[in-house]
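Sample entry (138 residues):
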Amino acid sequence: MNSKITPKVLQPKKTSRPNTKDLGDKGEAIALTFLLTNGLSLVQKNYKTPGRGGGEIDLIMKDGDNTLVFVEVKKRKSLRHGGAASSITLIKQKRISKAALIYLMDFTHLPACRFDVVLVEPAITWIKAAFELAEIQT
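Predicted structure, serialized as tokens:
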């Protein structure tokens, strides 16, 4: 008896849920559009510090009065687990602060700066001056 065995071709499972990077990218795009609509201009997206152990700044914007605005974007699908704001801990603030200081090292004259947070949950919440430069201990 001559029977052929046809190998099964495995197809990757399709997931309906986006991964966290996709979710974050979508949140950053929404936040950027929101901030541009509200008069800020984009300086840089996704600034990463060189080397290991550094930080990342989601958006660096400039306000109408030339204030440099370091923006942390948090997107959540729901308000469960404390919502997006609860994930901006002191440790996260220190990482953002360190990244901002490294970014500013190339400036000969330091501009006025602030740290904003944009929460992209079911609604968009813009928190201006959400935190101050965190004390960084080495």
